[in-house]
Design brief:
The structure holds 2 protein chains of 2 kinds. Chain A is α+β, with helices and mostly antiparallel strands. Chain A has one domain: HPr-like (Histidine-containing Protein, Chain: A, 2-Layer Sandwich), CATH 3.30.1340.10. Chain A contains 3 helices and 4 strands. Chain B is 48% helix and 14% strand. Classes of the chains: A alpha+beta, B alpha/beta. At the A-B interface, α1 and α2 of A face α4, α5 and α6 of B. Chain A: Keywords: Cytoplasm, Phosphotransferase system, Sugar transport, Transport.
């Protein structure tokens, strides 16, 4: 399993378009990918799941990927979040 | 049988008569059952999901064809839910774990998701709560072997009656619907916008009085007055039909003469222009006899893109519009955007009060790179027609000077690069902030023309947001205070020898045309559909009488009295 920790920087957090972008990217990998915020966890390939975490600017989350392409998945998702998710 | 009218909100103008058809959303009754073969139940659920996907994909397609891509986009959210593991897999897992029937599991998961979404601190997400409710409803109906509402029940000439209409409802309506009537909804409701786009009358917000309407009732809808009459007596129905015919004939007669200039009975030429919001509006504008464009809103270039539109992209669009209108003037307004608009590629910070905030010319002047891209595109496109450039939301002289110096800078740069630009471009401003109207004499010296934007001028002068149901009754551009600002602006323009026009919704109201001419306007710009009728009204007007009428209405104390007096002429 690969885990990456990251602090969310874009202004509206993981809502609306940023969440959709993230889910779309996650869908490109075969690994099981989970987002973890505090004690909550959600499937990164599910828009509803990601939105239910209610991640806001400044929150720290972990990306946990498990599977064949786990390294690449965690790395790419981290880069995407760092780039501001299109915001 | 009495034929007392019922009162609602007139959301789309016009008169219609039709037979009532209730558009009722069924809420399926769900029983919880224990099942023995969970896998068979999961299969049944999967089949239903596929069926729902097919239906929604079809709906998306018909909506795109009939209304447009933007409206069709609402169904993408529906489809994404049907592919979302947190929703679909959750239902399947629970069917397996709890050994319960698909209906009961689907209902509880939908409810949880909908509650989760509506609790999120984000309006966009809250709106998705309705969408998932819609999707869940469709799944439950299909699971119980029933079909969601069948739009084919709505024959041409039907009046659709509903508690409330969602985008996914109106999208299904076949062409030829006579009108819409709802219990809830305001002028800004989705159904209102849709009705106006389709050109059918609508009365919304009838409240509980809508319960008096039964399937098959004859309904008269008066979208101007905001009333409906149920099962009218023969006399009332006959009158309404005659009025509809009269309006129809007026429209046809006006359309025949739409190509001709609008000249008052005593020979004064009034230019009647079209407002356009994109290249798709050009054809309709020309077909309705537009003598030019009085307001070309450029926001579509920015809103329909995923990046700041490039100089080339803008140049192409402006050039196409200018070429389409040949030697007729085209007034292009520079970017009017602020914190109320969500540009996915821009950092527009949320503002407490975007309409009093960092928008329009203010935004452009503090983002000169973005502004200069547009100015360069305009200067280049100006070669291909009669371009007039207009800055929005100006309130003081230095804004105009700053904008003009950026324009000069762009012209010099283009000259140095050897790129041709138009020699003479007229530069003007929107008068839409009260300060600009009151100080119009101060601003007039800096520009070639001024155009009064009545929508914002009215909202700023009366401090009333017409999208807010609580105060929208205060919003009326015919308010004497607004009209006084119009006269003041026209006076300032006349003294300076520059042109004063109007491009707000008031300009397209045929019953106000005489007053507007009397106030001193020489150019009126409106949505294309209003042009033929306003031109006819201009032809009936005597300018001397119009001036007296304008003098009289400025002394009245309410917009209602202004409109009554204007109607009598």
């Amino acid at each position: 399993m690969t885990e990456e920790k990251i602090t969310i920087q874009n202004k509206s957090g993981l809502h609306a378009r940023p969440a959709a972008l993230l889910v779309k990217e996650a869908g490109n990998y075969t690994s099981n990918i989970q987002l973890v915020k505090e004690d909550k966890q959600a499937d990164a390939k599910s828009l509803l799941g990601v939105m239910s975490l209610s991640v806001r600017k400044g929150d720290e989350i972990a990306i946990r990927a498990e599977g064949e392409d786990e390294d690449q998945a965690a790395q790419q998702l981290r880069d995407l979040i760092e780039s501001g998710l299109g915001e | 049988m009495a034929t007392e009218p019922l009162n609602g909100v007139g959301a789309a103008p016009g008169l219609a008569i039709g037979r009532a058809v209730w558009w009722r959303k069924e809420t399926p009754q769900v029983e919880t059952k224990t099942i023995s073969d969970a896998e068979a139940e999961v299969d049944r659920f999967e089949e239903t999901v596929n069926q729902a996907k097919e239906q929604i994909t079809r709906l998306r397609e018909t909506t795109r064809e009939r209304i447009g891509e933007e409206e069709a986009g609402i169904f993408d959210a529906h489809l994404s839910f049907l592919e979302d593991p947190a929703y679909i897999d959750e239902i399947k897992n629970r069917i397996r774990d709890q050994k319960k029937n698909a209906e009961s599991v689907c209902q509880s998961v939908t409810e949880e998701m909908s509650q989760m979404l509506s609790s999120l601190p984000d309006e966009y997400m809250q709106a998705r709560a309705d969408d998932i409710g819609d999707v869940g409803n469709r799944l439950l109906l299909l699971l119980s072997g029933r079909q969601p509402l069948d739009p084919s029940l709505l024959e041409a000439g039907s009046v659709v009656v509903a508690e409330e209409l969602a985008p996914s409802d109106t999208a299904q309506f076949p062409p030829g619907i006579a009108g819409m009537v709802t219990a809830r909804g305001s002028q800004t409701a989705h159904a209102a916008i849709m009705a106006r786009t389709l050109g059918i009358p609508a009365v919304l917000g009838l409240g509980s009085s809508i319960d008096n309407v039964s399937d098959g009732d004859t309904v008269i809808i008066d979208g101007d007055e905001g009333t409906i009459v149920l099962n009218p007596d023969a006399d009332t129905e006959e009158k309404a039909r005659r009025e509809m015919e009269r309006q129809q004939q007026l429209r046809e007669k006006a359309l025949e003469k739409a190509e001709q200039d609008a000249v008052t009975a005593d020979g004064e030429r009034i230019q009647v222009f079209a407002n356009i919001g994109g290249l798709k509006d050009i054809e309709t504008a020309l077909a309705n006899g537009a003598e030019g464009v009085g307001l070309f809103r450029t926001e579509f270039l920015y809103l329909e893109n995923d990046h700041w539109p490039t100089e080339e992209e803008q140049f192409d669009a402006y050039r196409k519009a200018l070429e389409a209108f040949g030697d007729k003037p085209v007034v292009i307004r520079t970017l009017d955007i602020g914190g109320d608009k969500d540009l996915p590629y821009a950092e527009l910070p949320e503002e407490e009060n975007p309409f009093l905030g960092h928008r329009a010319i203010r935004f452009c002047l503090s983002n000169p790179e973005i502004f200069k891209t547009q100015l360069r595109a305009l200067l280049r496109a100006g070669v291909y027609g009669d371009l007039w450039m207009m800055f929005p939301m100006v309130e003081n002289v230095s804004e105009i000077q700053e904008a003009k110096s950026l324009l000069d800078e762009c012209r010099q740069e283009l000259d140095q690069e050897g790129i041709p630009t138009a020699d003479s471009i007229k530069v003007g401003i929107m008068v839409e902030v009260p300060a600009a109207a009151i100080g119009a004499d101060l601003l007039a010296g800096e520009v070639d023309f001024m155009s009064i934007g009545t929508n914002d001028l009215t909202q700023y002068t009366l401090a009333a947001d017409r999208g807010n149901e609580q105060v929208s009754h205060l919003y009326d551009a015919a308010h004497p205070a607004v009209l006084r600002l119009v006269r003041q602006t026209c006076e300032a323009a006349r003294k300076r020898g520059i042109i004063a026009g109007m491009c707000g919704e008031l300009a397209g109201d045929p019953e106000m045309a005489e007053v507007l001419i009397g106030l001193g306007l020489h150019e009126l710009s409106m949505s294309a559909g209003a042009i033929p009728v306003v031109k006819e009204q201009v032809r009936r007007t005597q300018t001397e009488e119009a001036r007296h009428l304008a003098d009289r209405v400025l002394e009245l104390d309410s917009p209602q009295k202004v409109r009554q007096t204007a109607q009598k002429g």
